[in-house]
Prior knowledge:
With 350 residues, this protein is of the alpha/beta class. The chain has helices spanning 24-35, 54-67, 88-96, 125-134, 154-169, 183-190, 209-213, 230-241, 258-261, 276-286, 293-305, and strands at 8-12, 15-19, 40-43, 75-81, 100-105, 137-140, 175-177, 196-200, 247-249, 313-318, 327-330, 333-336, 346-349. It has an 8-stranded parallel sheet with strand order 2-3-4-5-6-7-8-9, sandwiched between helices. Strand 5, helix 4 (125-134) and strand 6 (137-140) form a beta-alpha-beta unit. The longest helix has 16 residues, at 154-169.
Amino acid sequence: MKDANLTRLTIRRPDDWHLHLRDDAMLAAVAPQSAAHFARAIVMPNLVPPVVTGAQAAAYRDRIRAVLPAGADFTPLMTLYLTEDTDPADLAQAHAAGIAVAAKLYPAGATTNSASGVRDFERIRPVLEKMAEIGMILCVHGEVTDPDIDIFDREAVFIDRVLRPIRRWVPDLRIVMEHVTTADAVDYVRDTHRNLAATITTHHLIINRNHILAGGIRPHYYCLPVAKRESHRIALVQAAVSGDPRFFLGTDSAPHVDAAKLQPCGCAGVFSAPNTLSCLAEVFDVAGRLRKLEAFVALNGAQFYGLTPNAATVTLVKGTPVDYPAQITTAEGPVTVFDPGFPLHWRVEG
Length: 350
Ligand code: NCD
Ligand code: ZN
């Protein structure tokens, strides 16, 4: 059957390889949204204070589990936030105990709650060597923070200044370049045949920088890395729908209350957990590549992380436009849901 004729698609239950669940009231509000559609998620450690030690990751994992709806089929996969003082022994112990599957490298100041990130990458070399030795994955926020580098160039410059050197020092380290936004990053990952993969967000498959800036400024589309020009978006779509196992979904669903987004200096982050799968099905449908959706959302990431794909399935059904809330309510205030700018025809059946 040609993709164009598909109206039902059953795939393995998806995983989200990059997710912000926050803490406290926000966690309680957003965790069920991801648990409704995803079996597992790599949970980002950029809380305040950050999740640095194995003990902090275990405690955070327990707080997540405590707010999941009864019977939810959702496993949080925890990450440690790398600092220049990270103790390789604590990290190795957390990995061996199954508490942390990956560690996250934020260049200091690159994004929301990244002040404790790394300034001098040489200083984490012993940690990276330990991670390569024990097979722990490094998740990377791939942007330089140098004020002299234009914000639209920060990902491409990061590849040359940081990622290439790290890969030369520690070639056995398995790295996920997260939320890639440029053709440069897609090409770099595609040309690398060992130990490197990339996540792509839902929103970067849909918006380009015009959506943020043309005809008025739209804070709900502002995230980091910031969306780039249309040619880059097209490169991301091509990578996502290609089935290439080095590209997989990390939604980077990153809730901030509207009061924090709608500011003279608003927060970066797009909240897409409630409608992400419907958005993705639409993108793959329009590209005529629905048959590759399962690889992107449910197979490729598991393979890179060395995990078994989920046995459970979800069915997507095409029909009249899906209703989803424009906002969700949280005890901290409303959070706006990502608006793809077009109707979504694919609904998720259990
Ligand atoms: C994320 C957040 O709000 O925590 N924001 C974002 O724009 N993506 C941080 C991040 O992943 O960079
Ligand atoms: Zn993120």
